[in-house]
Description:
Its EC number is 3.4.21.-. It comes from Brassica cretica (Mustard). This is Prolyl endopeptidase. It is an enzyme of class 3 (hydrolase). The chain is of the alpha+beta class. α4 crosses α5. The chain starts with a strand and ends with a helix.
Amino acid sequence: LYYKRVEEGKQYPVLCRRLASLHDEFISHKSPAAGFDFTSGKRIEQKLLDYNHEAQRFGGYAYEEMSEISPDHKFLAYTMYDKDNDYFKLCVRNLNSGALCSKPHADQVSNLAWAKNGQALLYVVTDQKKRPFRIYCSTIGSTDEDVLLHEETEGNVHVNIRHTKDFNFVIVNTFSPTFSKVFLINAADPLSGLALVWEHNAPAHCIIEHHHGFLYLFTDASKDGGTLDHHYLLRSPVHFSSSPRIWETVFIDDPEVIIEDVDFCKTHVSLIVKQMQSFKICVVDLPLKTEQIPVRLRDIQPRYLPLPKHVSQISPGTNYDFNSPTMRFTISSLVMPDAVVDYDLLNGKWNIVQQQNMLHERTRVLYGTANSAESPNIPSGTRIVSFDTTEDTSAENDNLWNELTEFYACDYHEVSSHDGAMVPLTVVYSRAQREENKKPGLLHVHGAYGEMLDKRWRSELKSLLDRGWVLAYADVRGGGGKGKKWHQEGRGAKKLNSIRDYIHCAKFLVENNIVQENKLAGWGYSAGGLVVASAINQCPDLLQAAVLKVPFLDPTHTLIHPILPLTAEDYEEFGYPGDIDDFHAIREYSPYDNIPEDVLYPAVLVTSSFNTRFGVWEAAKWVARVRDNTFNDPKRPVLLNLTTDIVEENRFLQTKESASEIAFLIKMMES
């Protein structure tokens, strides 16, 4: 059992493990970190990696991008951020001795995958523009030079690798603005070469998994070129004799059931599906009970797993153990702390193994006993339920989920934008403060890269809810709230749609008395900061205050003179200023280029870091121009907070920054 924990007073976690066979014999409820059995006097926990020590090696920072335990549990491969050189360094540690291996020792590593049952490690390195382009194979314990397996010489082709869950193959994805390809490497013989198994004449999202002699492909590639607005599942035998390889569709398309993600184990495939904007998890037995495919999903009677109400996101866990019927998911909601849940797909038992404790009488422990009845004094999330085939997945008792719906309500709205598009708007508020007339509000947005807006419970915002604030979340175009087409309608030359959607959602909150007039604030992170800043330019009186975190504020100059490396995805998302049409489109929405003169701006807090993809100078020059162009009002300050640290990887700095933002919002609303 592998887990990370934080020791008291330490900034970074420790990676540990203990034998699963000892899991039920020794349970430490209050301090699972202790790892000491007072009955036998034996220490049963092994510390694998102390990230506080890693911070000393890397200039005070411990920023890990990825880590992989070898299949034989003997080695840990991980990449650490080297701040001085601005790249990730590959490290391999012997878990028996705790020592670092002499090789592989590579810089600028973006990806890795184990092969030969842990005897070999494949890794990808980037060029000077941070483009992943080479795959190397290193034999652990050997003094031989690492072998170059593959190289992409074209400047717009990227490479990515991952192992299948049964460790039989390493999947190689290569993609560019004009194509996508997938290759297989035999993990037992990684030097045997790459075999092409799938290609498409357009950039497409594709994940391949191996299951009992079949390759399963989850993709959004259209059969006639381009991409679709949804994903679907294909299947093909591993050993396919003819060329080109033939892929068969597994499930018949159902517009009412959109498959968002898939995960495999030895006996089942789990599907995260979306029905009428509601997320569900359904389970299908493998191998399929029918030889004839494609089939309708509902015809093979999938089993639906129990979920709480108001689920905003479902994220599959790592689920490394391919042979185990237990799958882990993280269930997110705006009215419930994230719940890490283990589902046994064979018998229907489910257990909340970790969840932030907001209600002390409903504590969820990290390590509970196998049967909650054995330990009646310690609350546990373990429940045995009958599988549901009716698609009604709400649990019988909301209290099982540590939901906070007793105290906070969640409403959903559809807001008509400037062109009639209906924009999803989610609102959360305190039931105790529902009738309060003077309701301040905070409107969140992202709206870029087709990414889902982060709509999870954030304990730091509980302070605002309990003060009567309304928290709102606008799924504007450009994000992933309503599929790929929704993304396409808010990118490039259509970026203004994102900004206008946000403005209409803000006005909807005020006009419908959800938020009091002159009491609305905005919040945007990264590309979301661009949306909020552009909305302020168009309607300076729209917001009373705004928080912009590491915002993208000067797309014109950043895209045409990229001091920091940009990817093809960045140019596809915002446009290329070298093209005259794109240039004019960017100038029309660019926050820095459209700051109005002689107007009263809202109070703004801009936070940025010297360690971010968007240069710190963007925030500094934007703040300077706002101060120069607009009226100065001491009650509406425009503040700039810069750090030299990586805030995302420092829990103390995260807490400090969150407290500053919330204090700023409260003070600005009170003034």
